[in-house]
Amino acid sequence: MQFAHTKERADALAAAALSRMATLAVAPTPNNYLLWYAYEADGLPDLRREVDRLLGDGTTFSPEVCEGLYQRHFTGQARRDGIDDASRKLEETIATVAYAVGTAEQGAADYGRTLQGLVERAGQPEQLNQTLASVLAETRRMAELNRALEQQLTDSRKEVSELRQNLTVMEEQASIDGLTGIANRRVFERILIESAAKAQTKGGFVSLLMIDIDHFKAFNDTHGHLLGDQVLKLVAKSMVDTVRPGDTAARYGGEEFAVILPSCTLTDARALADKIRLAVASRRIVNRRTNQDLGKVTLSIGVAEMALGEPLTGFVQRADEALYTAKRNGRNRVCTQAELERQIA
Fold first, then answer.
1. Active site residue: 8, 171, 172, 255, which one?
2. What's the catalysed reaction (predicted)?
3. In terms of CB atoms within 10 Å, which end of the chain has fewer, N or C?
4. For the chain, what is the domain count?
């Protein structure tokens, strides 16, 4: 990732980043420096929101927490840089092939002119042997040129095939949350836009679940981030196992998840949310190293159905408000926009 800052601005951001790292007792490693420099520069909105939330919660920025932030917010950028690099290599390969073809065309033209000159001189008997020798030599030169072109084209086809495969892999990786294996925030936002546009233009339904793991910070602080990651994977798997074909389960950020439900009414969305909640609550969390039973985790879920003509920000906000109402009302429950509206009334 690159930052276009003046020296004065960069110096100020560096000082602010190092000061905050010292205050939070964060080790001054290169990755941590990049993380906190980017935070101070406010160049990554998702990073800023997550760090602000962690600061507000009083989270200790342990090496594991900082590494998680780095992986979530910078490895995706590395993948995008990799895609750009592969694209440049593909362009270079195409240019090389074009140059080789141009060289071959020029060689063929030269060959034609050489043969024409030899034919004109072939009428003189004393020059016949010399002419035949020249034709043979020129033919060999063209054969070598064509073999070189064929090899270059073969090599280029192989390079293009490898680049295409690499691009496919990087595009897939850029759309997946590295820890849980489900869609990431970027894909969630793209599919939400597509689903909402389809529902608005064709008059269909689209509902949204916003999901939060109850007391996840306390669990993490008590049992450590490795077991916390185990919980995140459990929730993601339960979502994937429960949603319908065509639904999109995504990690929204931290311990927050979301599910986009095309062609789904509020009533059906609530029922599916309860299935996810019960699926997670029915599982026991076990420390695989010690075989200790750590109990279970629960979910709070907010549900909203998009209204005709509603902006996306309003749609997501209503699902968020329903989620926080579920948490305020005791957690381990589902709250819909309709229930929220009744409480307000």
1. 255
2. 2 GTP = 3',3'-c-di-GMP + 2 diphosphate
3. C
4. 3
303 closest CA partner among 324, 287, 289: 324
Condensed to tens digits (0 to 9), the pLDDT of residues 219-278 reads 988 988 889 999 999 999 999 999 999 999 999 988 999 999 999 999 999 999 999 999
- pTM exceeds 0.70, yes or no: no
Range of the domain at 280: 185-344
Minimal CA–CA distance to 94: which of 164, 147, 166? 164
DSSP reduced 3-state for 341: helix
Four-CA torsion 146, 149, 151, 154, nearest 10 degrees: -130
Do 241 and 278 belong to one domain?
yes
CB 107 within 8 A of CB 145: yes
Cα 89 to Cα 2, 92, 151, 247: the distances in Å are 21, 5, 19, 36
Nearest to residue 325, comparing CAs of 303, 296, 292? 303
In tens, the pLDDT along 32-57 reads 888 898 898 877 777 888 898 889 88
Containing H/E element for 53?
helix 45-57
Residues 232 and 237: their CA atoms lie apart, in Å, by: 9
**Active-site residue 255, yes or no?**
yes
41/55 Cα distance (integer angstroms): 17
